Amino acid sequence: MKNFSIICLLLFFLFINLKEAKAVIQNKVNENTKISNVINNPLFGDYGRLIFPLNSSYYSGDTLGNLSLTWYSNIKPARTVEIINYMLSQVQQGNKIFYRIYPVNDARSQKTGLFFFKGNKNSKFAICNAGGGFVYVGAMHDSFPHALELSKKGYNAFALIYRPGSDTACEDLARAIAFIHENASEFEVDTKNYSLWGGSAGARMAAWLGTYGTEYFGEKVYPRPSAVIMQYTGLSEVTGSEPATYNCVGTNDGIASYQTMQNRINKIKANGTDAEIEIFDGLSHGFGLGEGTIAEGWLDRAVNFWEKNN
Question: Which fold, 54-308?
């Protein structure tokens, strides 16, 4: 009788796991879906592991509902579920959502790539760069949501998975910009007046590429962005070559000083370049889209800033 009970219990857990795995494949993920099932979903092939940080020490939680990322606040489980369901539905419809920016036989290709959130045919594009202190890529909260929202507005949006490290990250962003220009007809994007977006470390990447250009990081010369959209990073340098720049940050950010960001914006404006900053009282680091906070709606205003600087 004891052995029979153990067998029944094992069969029960097997049934639950198979049921959940089947649900993931059928595009029915929810907050209780295990992160490991998403990563290993055969629909995502060998890039499923890039959806979440490669270094698992920078995130915790075993389900979509209890995902936590180092240095980030305001993570919304419903948004995480929406993103995975979007990806699954696109793949099931036969749409390609992931592109390697380096040749397959290049070791760099195993840690990098572009997730594509398609907007309207021949519309402008944006590249979103998540933060993570240059030690990991927090895309699920800091670039995937932004890219998805931009695609809903009709823009073609890319979320870059890059190699940690400030130099390698910028090299990968330069390669991504080049890759999109090289394959613009396949992506069906307009390469004029694109924008670079980023939070925390990702914001520095966007700013550096906007200021120094792709050629500084080993690629051919490509047009620079018409606007850089930055969240919560304490970058202070101003060279006079900055493109139009939008910033947003919270007053309780213990990592990125809002005064530092405000001073940089003032310097950019003093050089005759359009620049804006929004400072949100009481918000801490890594608020992402800011849903349910005082920052909610900032992305819409950032889009308007981008549009006026085309």
Answer: Rossmann fold (3.40.50)
